[in-house]
Specification:
Helix content is about 80%, strand content about 0%. It is mainly α and about 70 residues long. Pfam families: MPC.
Length: about 70
């Protein structure tokens, strides 16, 4: 019973519609939104004296985008 369902899922993943979806901001926007909190959680394990330049840059760029498109 799971065979046809798996085959249908694999056909969709290999379809042009799915590739088109991966190339749009509807997919990458949420991926980027989840990336920042995950990076912040990774920084919790570091010494408090170290400020992540990548994290600071990412937060600044995110805020610029939010202000520009709000």
């Amino acid at each position: 019973m799971a065979g046809p369902l798996i085959k249908k899922g694999l056909n969709y993943v290999s379809s042009k519609d799915f590739r088109d979806y991966l190339c749009r901001y509807h997919f990458w926007g949420p991926v980027a939104n989840w990336g920042l909190p995950l990076a912040a959680l990774g920084d919790l394990k570091k010494d408090p004296e170290i400020i992540s330049g990548k994290m600071t840059l990412g937060n600044c760029l995110l805020q610029i985008l939010i202000v520009k498109y709000s």
